Every structure is written in C-alpha cells, then in structure tokens.
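Bit of a strange request maybe. I'm writing a small parser for structure token strings and I need a real example to test against, not something I typed by hand. Could someone generate the tokens for this chain?
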Amino acid sequence: MSEGPVTSLPYRTIGMVARCLMRLAPPGERLFWAQEAEHTLREVCAEAYRREGGVGLVATAFAECLDLARAALRARLGRATPITAGHPSRPPRQKGRKGMQILIHDIRLGIRSLRTSPTASLVAILTLSLGIGINTAVFSVLDSLLIRPAPFQQPERLVEVWNSAEQSKVRYPRFKRALYQAWRSQTDLFDRVEGYEVESAIYAGPEGAQSVGASFVTPRLLSMLGVAPLAGRVFHDGDGREGTAAQVVISERFRREQLGSLVDVLGSTLTLNGRPHTIVGIMPASFHFPNRSQELWLPLDVDDPPAALRDSRIVAYARLAPGVGLAQAAESVGERGSRLSTSAGGPASVSAALMPVSQRGDSGSRQSLIVLGGAVMFLLLIVCANLANLSLSRTLARGRDFAVRSALGATRRDLIRETVVENLLVGVFGVAGGLVLATVVLQTTTGLIPDQMLFQSLNRIDLDLRALTFTIVAGLLTSLTFGLPPALLGSRPNIVGVLRHESRSSTGSSASRRLRSGLVVGEVTVAIVLLVGAALMVRSFLKLHALEPGFQSEGLVSVRVGFPSEPYAEPQVRDRFSADALAELRRLPGIRSATVGTVPPDAGSIRFSQLEFAGKPGELTEQLIVPTYNVWPDYFAVLRLPMVDGRTFTDDEPASSIIVSQSFARNYWPGQSAVGQQFRSEGSKTWLTVVGVATEVRQLSLDDSIGSFEWYQPQKTAPGAAAPVRSASPSPTIEYRTFVVRADDPVAAMPLLKQAIHRVDSRMVLWKTSVVDDLFTEAIARPRVVLVLLLVFSGVGLVLAAAGIYGVLSYLVSQRLREIGIRLALGASPEGMFKQIIWSGMSFTLAGLITGLVASYFLVRVMRSILFEVEPSDPIAVGAVSLLLLMTAVAACWRPARRAMSVDPVTLLRDQ
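Reply from user aminoacidic:
Good idea to test on real output. This should exercise your parser:
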C-alpha cells in the first residue's frame, strides 16, 4: 500500500466506514459527526501509516472505528464519551510521580509550545518586557521620591513645623530664633525639636576657593536622625556656641572628591569662609540632608549662637512624642501656632502647620510624579490587553490540539494547568527582559530628571529589593491574570463543541470574538486617556515656552560671585569690588553692557510678609510671597526692562526706595499712580517709598503659591550710609552678588567673565555662570520631562492599540475567508467587503474612543495643577487626539481589508 494522500482509496474506504458508523449518532448531530469523524479519522490513520506502516494503519483504523461506534451510541443515549482510539479514557497514574515531576513536565511542554510559534512567543515576551521594564523604572523613581520612607530612625514620626498664613493659605518654613525656642518647649507634642539652616560655604582647597553646599544644624539633630557616621562622631551639646572651636562633619563624597589624597582626615583642618574648622566626623555616601546638595554640616547652638548667626531663621525639625499621633499633633500645632507667634514677637495672623518628612518637596513635582505613575500603569494595562490577545490567538490556534488531547483523556484541569505554566514562562522571560530594560532606562534617564524634582529626595534612585519584588510580582501576575481567560476558553471539556468552533469552516466562538473585541476596546480606551494627557501637556508646554520674560533676555549672561569673609565683611568693600569688576567686564570684547543684580527667573530672595500701607494704618494684607531683586542703578537699562511709571534707581539711592511690579501697583493702588506711595512689612519701622513701577517679569512657575508681584531694591550702598555692626570674627555665612552682562555671543563670553573677575581678585568664588535663556529653559524642565515621558508612553500605547486592532481584524478575516469567498462568489463586490472590514475595525475604535474620552474627562483632571493656562477638557487637545486615533485605526484596518478584498473565491472554495 503506498503512502499516498489521505484522499487515496484506502482512506476513502475508511471514511466511508466512518460515515456509516455515524448513522448511529443522534440525528441532530449526525452530519457534523460524519464530517468531523471522517476528516479526523483519515488524518489519524495517515499518521499511523507513516509511523508503523500498513499494520499500524489497519490496527488504528479498527480501533478508531470501534471507538467511534461506541461514542455515537453513547451520544444517542445522552452520555458523553471521549474518543480514545480504543485506549483507556484516563492513563493510569504513575507511581511516584510527584508534583515536582508534573511541574517539570509542564515546563518542558510549555517551552516546546513556545518554540512551535516563535514569532508569537517573542512578540508576547517583548511586549511584556516593555511594559514591565518601563513600569519598574518609573516605580523605582516614585519609590525613591514619594513612597520609600526616609532612611532615618522612626521616619514616620519625623515632621517639620512650618509657618501657616491661614488667610492667604501660604505655608513656608524657617522661624526666628525666639519662635523656634517656643516650639522647642512644647514637650507634650514633641519628643525632640532640632533645627537647621541651609547655607553655602567657601572652601579654600588646594585647587582654589569653591562654593560647597553646607548646613548649620543644632548639635543633636544628626543623632536624632539615627544615622551612624562612617567615621568619627557627630556633634555634642555645646558645639556651635559663641567662642567654641569651629567644627565640621563632612560627607563621604566630599572626602573622596576633595580630600582623596589624605589617609586619615579626622582631626585635620578645613578652611571654610576664611576660618579653620576641625573635621570630627564623616557621614556615609547615602546620607542626604536636608537636600542632595549638602556636603558639610556645621554646628549651631541656638541658645548661644555666634553673633553673625543670631538673626538666622531656622527650620524646626521634630520627632513626635510617644503616644502622640500625627493628626493629633497637627491639630494642636494649628491651635497653638498664632499664640506662640505672638509671644515670640511675630504676627498674630500667622499660625503653624506640620509637614511630614514623607511629604517633603514641592507639590508640583509630587503631582508630576503621580501623573507619570498613573500613565505607566495605563501603559501596563494596554500591554496586558495585548498579552491577553496574543495568548488567545495561541490558544485558539491550538484548539484542535486541545480537542485531540481531551479525546485522549486529558482533563480540563490538565489543559488549564499546562496553559497557565506556559503563560508563567512568558512572564518569567518578560520579567528578565523587563529588568534589563529597567536597568538601561534608569541609567540613561536618571540624569534627565530635573534637579528640582530630585533636590529634596533623601533616598537613592536604584533597583533595590522593593523594585525587584515589584517587577517579579507585576510580571508573573500580569501574565497569569491575562493569560487565564484564554486558557479557560480553550480548555472546554465539550470536545464536540471545541471541534465545531475550531474546524476549518468555523468563524471562531462567539466568546472568543467578544473577548478579543473587548480587549481592543479597552486598549483604545486607555490609549485615549494617555493621548489626551500628552496633548494637554503639549498645549501647556507650548504656552509656557511662548511666554515673554518681560525683558530682552537674548544675549544676557549671569555669574554669581561669592565673597570671602575677609576682607569683604563690609558692604562698602563689596561695592568697591563690584565697581572694579564691572569696569573690567565692560572692557571685554563683545560685551555691550554690565550691571549687578539677580536676573529672572532666579530671585535674589523670597519675602514672606504682611504689608501695612501708609494710607491705611493698622490694616494688614494677607501673607504675601514676593520675589525680591537687589539691583544696581543701571540694572533696568542692561536688562532692557521697561518702566511704566516713575524712575529707576540713582547712584545715591536710599535703602528705603523700592520699585514694584505693575501688577503690585494695580492691585494695591487701583486707578492711581503708585509712585510716592509708602508701605512697610509687619514689624518693620522703615517705610518703603515707591519710586517706580516696572513691567512684569516671568518666573515661569506653575506653583500658585508664588505670586506675580516683584520688588526691586537698591543694593549699592548710598554714600554716607552707616555700616552695620559686625563681629570681629569672620562670618560663617557667605555674601553673594550676581553680575549680569549683555554679550554678542553669550557662550563665548562665559569663560571671559571668570577671567575678568579673577583679575580683580583671584580669591573670588564663581558659584554659577549661566546664559539667561538657559535659566528659562531650566525653569520649565519639570513640565518638559513630564511632556516627553507622556509622549513616549502615549506613543507606545497608540502603537499597541493599533496592533490590537490589526490583530483582531487579521484574525477575523482569516476565520471568515470561506464566508468571504462565498459572498464574493454570490455577487458581493470587493469594495463592499473592503468597507465591511474597515467598519468592523472602526466600530472597535469608536467604542473605545467614546469610553476613552469620557474616562479622560474625569481622570486627567488630576493634571490640573501641572497644566499652565490649559483646562483638562481643552477642545483642541481632545479634537487632535480623536483625529489621530481615527487615522491610526484606519491605517491598522487597511491591510486586513485589502486582504479580504483580494480573495479569489474560486481558488479559496477549491482549497476548502
């Protein structure tokens, strides 16, 4: 007997016998039984002949025919029987086959199954790796900045006490010394109250003087945090008092970068601000307090501070008393704040509030990180939907395999278990790929995160145990959860039903079609939310970028100079240096003009104050936050900052003169000129006289707590002005001034500025040199990084959603080829089939578009605080997103529709 095709005479004879035996089946299922039994029997017998020859063919045909007859009779009697080719319906359980052996067997079977469809398996693994990798990277950032506790002792009980102006809803840290001491006495609320003040120090090293981040801390603050020094000790009670030896605790980074050549640095001396300091301790590299830029800590005794620090403002850092909860302490602090402020000589309108250490950092950065966290979770949902679609495709493609294995005795539990193990294998490979991707993403993008988002972080950003746990749990749970529904659909115990739904003439089960369609609609819905969020950020960023700064920033360069304590302790001496430096700068080639004064968007200082106006004695405004610029007379001419009323400063301008912004004048003197008006801060005896009104400048801040009011005060000391009384010892703090020049080529001018200033005095420390336009670019760095990441996430989501639409339509067309061929043979036009397939895909898209727009209306409202002059329901953003999605959906539908349009009915029906 030749092997021949299954249509040869021996196989046709076997098929005829099978059809005769199937007359025993119930009349309603007889036709299907005959068709499926004949086809299945021929294939099984052909395989037996290839493996065992003619003897095997005869034996298999005989066993199969007996089995078919028995199954048909039992079906007529209403009793289902698996078709087992004469073998026992369930193989006997092997003795000693333990659970681990079963698991190993399932793993081998899963790997073999993945290898049989390498393309689909690779796509599933890569898709999961993409989602898990991006989520892990973002989770690591969120965990470090928002979730992970501070690396201190009992971090949940650590708080900062802030001023709280209830009328204007403004909160800000730093107390005067008397108010800090009043809070320190509240022992029923706080176990300990310590404090710090952020400053800078000029370090005179072997390579010259340089500015270093430093903080003055109360002696017991470092010990309260519970972080042991890497070497040496922290401060003791009595350190930092007037007349005591100057001491310093350094960071490991400072020791490594600045003192690396020294074997034993403990006990050695550093020259800081012109004064020798003895190194008593080294803090570990992981210690960041109160922010990431601090490298030195100096002691400050609040009860008996050095003369130069007696007017310092201190941040109160406290640990709650045992048995006192955060809510209870916050309520008590709010009740006592006004009374303590009054007793310490402060305003009665200012109370106090608690800021838990876990909530440190600006609200804009926190909100931006929350938005990014939500965006990556939405992206993971799209990945999960795609994974479920891919799993369903693999399961449906193996429908006949499941049916045959069920017929051979495999239970539904066995099929589900094996499918689950296969999905978990995809999860394991996806987790491995996700970890690799997360590592690469963190290494390449951590440096792109703006300093303003990382500045207050007390933890390192890395893939720690928490991130690894998140990755493993998310990967395995995702693959298991979204791979289980397809497994349940593909492992039905009704063999006849499975064969019917997976036969060559079938169009797929209604359950599988509904599941695939629902997954695509879900993908489109989530993609719409991501796209709307990205579109809103684009609109907001464009508006921010288009803002005019209020002056001509092109060509401006600023350089911040730190003065050594000696011989620059007096302001007149600093004025003489500034005049000499300006003369030197103006002689440089390509420099058009030069002046002294902080340039926006940086502010020289921030004033927190209530105001009293001369025309309304005794009446105070709400608490204001006002950026204040200390400037020289030619400042407005160099910056080309227009004046709308009054005049600029003169060389002999008294310190009581002030120039205010146009919005300030319009708000407090509506309908009249502000020039000549007087006001003063609460508690001050000096009335400030308005001599001019300047145009608004842009801070480019999305934080509503920063107002649009600006003040300008003269920094140059008027001739004959009395110098303040100072202590004889060098000051522990640094005086800074900012020089601003207008250059033809700002970048080329930057090194020339440094050389010119050092020609005047080589001891000067150049802390920061910047092109002013770059400062505005840095000011919008946070919304820019959020925009870029949202565009990436939404782009990936859009591609995955389009892939889902394409996959569903391709599967639909492949399952309906016979139907399409019949329709075309009966006269349907190819153009009609094209439109029908396009409409099938667009129906998924429109359903997802509607639900997505509704969801985005509610979900993207959380972005309101990080948007600039854009509403969450912005019609331009919504319209652009809708158009983009529809165009993408049409592109995804095009190829399957063209395939349906090009079907040859004659060839197709002949093959079928």
